[in-house]
Amino acid sequence: MNTNADLLNELRIDRSPGPPPSRKGLWIALAAAVVVVLLALAGWWLFAREKPVPVETATAVSLSASTAPASVLDASGYVVARRMATVSAKITGRVREVLIEEGMEVEEGQVMARLDPIDADAQRSLSAAQLSAARSQAASISARLTEAEANAQRLSRLVGQQLVSKAQHDQAVAQRDALRAELVTARRNAEVAADSLRISDIGVDNTVVRAPFAGVVIAKAAQPGEIVSPLSAGGGFTRTGIGTIVDMDSLEVEVDVGEAYIGRVQPKMPVQATLNAYPDWKIPAEVIAIIPTADRGKATVKVRVALKEKDARIVPDMGVTVSFLEQAPAEDEAPRRGVRVPATAVVGQGDGAAVFVVGDGSVVERRGVEAGGTIGDAREVTSGLAPGETVVLAPPSGLADGATVTTEAP
């Protein structure tokens, strides 16, 4: 049984510090708040956000491309040069100097290289000495002949007067005739020596290598000190050429056309060539000839195509794609500006005409345009729209600027 003292002790206030409060409840409250916020965002995403509008789209096409002549056949080939030469010396010799570099333009007759002329100069000196000797001999015989003719003429008068014997006269005449024959031979020897000197001059000139025609150097094959020869007589140690030049005005295209389609190609047929290196550059061309032979292995026929434009960007062995056209494009027709789109893509009329352009993230932009006439089921747009842009076909009435759409091709 509790006493009064015990009861009083129970009523006493305990002022000792209690245990620290627990943070478990605080973390639970924060987690619950985050869950509530995430659930609210998910609900807005599912029910309150604007849903993408399904639309059909098309691509704007350039008017100049859409009005180009139709192609009956497309093929690929390469740029080739009809006039190309690997220039070499006419004689075998050691290269003294090379005066060309790749990419250098040369004129017809321009010196490209020089060979060591020691042998040619020595031969020319010998021929010149032989010519001088032959002329000196002819001059000596001519002087002796003059004396013999005078002696024969004097004895002819004396023998008529019986002052000298006939034998002396006959001897003088024979000597004169012999000297005449020797003079003819000496003069012919001098002519032969002169011809030999001219040949030696040609040999000296052959040590100079000149360009056979005007063109551009595309390869330099020899260096000073190397042996060059028109024939590959020295194996890998003898060069057969100084360099290669190309006449850039003779560039054309060679195309291999399948046998099954060669009937579509005719001489003088208009062609549009496109270099692989410059796909946006359309070069007018024309069929030169169809080579009358076929490649048995590839079942193709070679066609020569002439390029109507000359440009430094066109170089030999470039890849090219050609389109054989039904008719040549009009030269006096200026390229048309603007694009062509389906007529249903344009909304409004006059100054209020507009299209919905699909941009990044499938977000549409309402853009004012200047619309032209109709081309069948298409419409011209002369300004405000670029080729390659995507437009919405038959835009829904509720479609607004900045809306998100889901696109599909019509």
UniProtKB/TrEMBL annotation:
Residues 131-189 form a coiled coil. Residues 253-326 form the CusB-like beta-barrel domain. Residues 339-406 form the YknX-like C-terminal permuted SH3-like domain. It holds the Pfam family Beta-barrel_RND_2. InterPro entries: Beta-barrel_RND_2, MdtA-like_BSH, RND_pump_MFP, YknX-like_C. The chain crosses the membrane at residues 25-47. It comes from the Bacteria. Gene3D superfamilies: 2.40.30.170, 2.40.420.20, 2.40.50.100, Helix hairpin bin. Keywords: Coiled coil, Membrane, Transmembrane, Transmembrane helix. Residues 83-229 form the Multidrug resistance protein MdtA-like barrel-sandwich hybrid domain. The keyword Amino-acid biosynthesis does not apply. NCBIfam families: RND_mfp. Belongs to the membrane fusion protein (MFP) (TC 8.A.1) family. PANTHER family: HLYD FAMILY SECRETION PROTEIN, MULTIDRUG RESISTANCE PROTEIN MDTA. This is Efflux RND transporter periplasmic adaptor subunit. It comes from Luteimonas rhizosphaericola.
